[in-house]
């Protein structure tokens, strides 16, 4: 695990810049560093040593010095790839997964999509092809690891000027003057994260997951192509064979994800996803005669998963560690969290993750976690909703029209919301569950009228997925979450909050082999017996506690709403202190939100936290204070 950075230009520009670009991301790799300066660019890395501690220094070069690499991530099938490449006559100088990418690129650079699809792991990388005078950037299929690049020049002929694992490296370039991207702000207020390709900093873009980019060193031009995307496949209808397949596939994924030359632990909430992961790690360690795995959970006075996590830990016999956080500690770290994120992300559970990662780093260098299980296996209850709504939508037309008229009545009655949702189109109904501020609320909140509206995930995906609108709604929901919520919020907080403490997080559910199997799960085996992720739960029945098997999703919850009522002034102080925020939003509207929450008239905790993280972000990156 590392942080990488690069800058294009002559040595007079790149030599003084590459060092500071790497220094600012030392938290991503405190164990080692390296840089290389060429005539037209420079790149380098900060390394967190996990595999081949002695032989994995970067930048790493091929035996003939024709290709160089800086690489952030882990390749879990590097041993298998190494065997294949050796059998084909390729030689190796180290035992690192980094060199496997180098040698594999030399063998497969004429078919880059196939080459990148062969990598089973998480990565953000840059390859320097000396002969072709190009840089090749690539990001893993799901976006577990981040990668950004900055463009300048006119819209018709943009040029790449720098790239890196974190935006803060790119902000050090004296050529760049940071400016807030207003479109990102608009979308953030709706979703609590920025779903756009262009970041909160105008001109700085993220490379999409499952994509690679080729940058010409002659002129800085960039071509981006996709090498992978999630595609639903022919259903595997045999229930018993599928259940066994899920079990075997996850056992294999976890076995690959624990490969390391340093101690490995696991996060443990009270839910089924982390319980399965920890179960598999513990079983594999026990079979090898190793010490119990170290597990970690976090909780607060008002809300905690300690009891549920302890139930799993006690059943498995793990070396379990509990972290407790109070309001003062929570508020104290928020400015740091805003800095680590680079862009505002208003997920309160990110703070929980920050604390549990800090505790874990004192014991281990790598942790496994359960991100991605819900998106791949159908874990959110809203995925079941279309099946319930079909009871209304399948009625004869006269009855359906009558139910629609009933839903529009002004007075409330039992079932009105159900009828309204049945009459609402997918693109409007589904996004309603993600809204923080709805469009009308955004217009009321912002001082200037927006020139555009937020993105519509369903509309966006229909443009890149042929037949998207004909898919069952539950499947459309899964794709929306994979392309937006998973990468923009869940994986962003997982990476930033762990790397803040130089801790590598691995996610065995987000594995190409697991994804390929999940593409074949029929909906009837995802949602059954009133539950979600049915086939995943059934695959591990008897190996996790029964109560855990049936428990709804938890995921390190926080008591933010309670704290806002107990000590609102302490929580919202940065909002009131931000002069920039007061220029952007109507503070009377903000104060009304606060007052309504404190009085118990509404739960505005999400809205207030969105504004809080926005104020802290701007303070960190623009005014230098909060």
Question: What do you see in this structure?
Answer:
The strands form three sheets. The chain has a six-stranded antiparallel sheet with strand order 2-3-1-9-8-10. Strands 4-5-6-7-11-12 form a six-stranded antiparallel sheet. It is built from 27 helices and 17 strands. The mean pLDDT is 91. 45% of the residues lie in helices and 15% in strands. It folds into three domains: 2-226, Glutamine Phosphoribosylpyrophosphate, subunit 1, domain 1; 239-378 and 480-548, Rossmann fold, CATH 3.40.50.620; 559-626, no CATH class. α2 (78-87) packs across α3 (97-108), α7 runs antiparallel to α20 (512-518) and α24 (568-577) crosses α27. It has 626 residues and is α+β, with helices and mostly antiparallel strands. β13 (264-267), α8 (272-287) and β14 form a beta-alpha-beta unit.
Summarize the structure.
The protein is an alpha+beta fold and 626 residues long.
Q: Write down the CATH topology of the largest domain.
A: Glutamine Phosphoribosylpyrophosphate, subunit 1, domain 1
Helix content: 40-55%
Secondary-structure arrangement, i.e. CATH architecture of the largest domain: 4-Layer Sandwich
Q: What best-fitting shape do the alpha-carbon axes yield?
A: globular
- State the helix count: 27
Structural class: alpha+beta
- The overall average pLDDT, rounded, is 91
Count of DSSP E strands? 17
Task: Kindly list the characteristics that best describe this protein.
626 residues; alpha+beta; Rossmann fold; 3 domains; six-stranded antiparallel β-sheet; 27 helices
